[in-house]
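User: quick one, fold this
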Amino acid sequence: MVIFREQKKYEKNTADETLWSAVGSGRTMVGMGFAVDIGTTTVVVTAIDLEQKKILGTMSCTNEQTKLGADVMMRIMHCMSGRGEILHNLVVRQVEEMAMQLCRNGKPEDVQGKRCYFFVVGNTTMCHLFLDKSVEGLAGYPFSPAYQGNYCCIGKEIGMEAFSEAGICVLSGIAAHVGADALAVIGAEKLYREDKVQLAVDLGTNAEIVLNQKGKISVCSTAAGPAFEGKGIFCGMAAKDGAIAEVKIASGNGNIILGVLGGKEAIGICSTGLVDLLAQLRRCKLLLKDGYLLRQSEAEKAGLPRELCGRLVVRKEQNAFLLCGEKEGKKEIYLLQSDIRNLQLAKAAIQAGIISILAAAQISLEEVDEFVVAGVLGSCVRQMSAVSIGLFPEAVREKIILAGNAAGKGAVLGVLDTAFSEKMERLAKEISHIEIAQERGFQDCLMNAMDIQRWL
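Assistant:
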């Protein structure tokens, strides 16, 4: 039996009142500000009335560039084959349209006569594409970005139309594959404190990992892929109305409780639901630690509950677990064996990245005072589920801080205070970048991290 219940939306509005008190610059601000976080998979824009110190709203949309590739390497390849202008125009148009929609009536006249300012963060490739800079130096080792430091211009210089006279500031990156979004997370979460050891992960398609050893900061990135953002998962979707965001399975009788965002009919499963589902399937012994999903006959032979055995089906010529289907009068939503492999790869990349950066610094997880989780899962993931599948280490379970869209919060701070961007630009020059793919033992670590089990 499947029980559906409304899952309340879990993301906090970016209009965190503490942001205003954090500014402290004392300068008079007028006009409109737009904080922009350009992720590989998702673009988030927050509109701010600077004079009234009021956040007008936040909008999150799938990056239009995903039509030409899910990851940064695919987009770099498109640029190298002469399609870079297409990618540039897609993201510029999208940011403009989102900014317009966030204005009161979504009409050009609503911003005419107002001074407008965009503060932009994103990974290095996304920032290069937004600014129409060459990504040739990002295509292979030794990696080299086309510009360094904060990049400032006006809208018309990058092809903006409705905001042709708007001021643009793109925050400095740190390295070729650790960009302005990671620097924004460092600034927003104060990952430079000299009294703590802080470890932070920004969970996105290109996952950035930050280690602060009492003021000594090192960073790395790992290609996690978009699986934890619902991309590359057959029934996956963003965390919107109709998304299954919570999964509970009773191992005794096989009953399933699904939390659906907005109380709507379930139409897919989002990141938190996927983490829960993996954890529940492992707990119910339907999923082996190597990621193999049992067939119905294998589960029956193992004596597992009949209700659960009946949900082990074949879809797309693969083993699959049916969350809900026609007998519940709902659209079929299931997890394929190939979906599990994609999630394993993402989990393994993150785990291997954390292990590698700690090894390079010669410290242990037990020495970490705070474990900050930002990004798509950073405001809503159930910590026990994440720990049980090895996404987060057991050793820091009591030290986890869920930061939500910390890069977006950093972008808001950048709109509100010019001192923020200047401070972050200086800090970026002091941060050590580790190319973990070149580290000895990384590939072995990656393979060992594939198992879906607690990471001790």
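User: anything notable?
Assistant: The longest strand covers residues 54-62.
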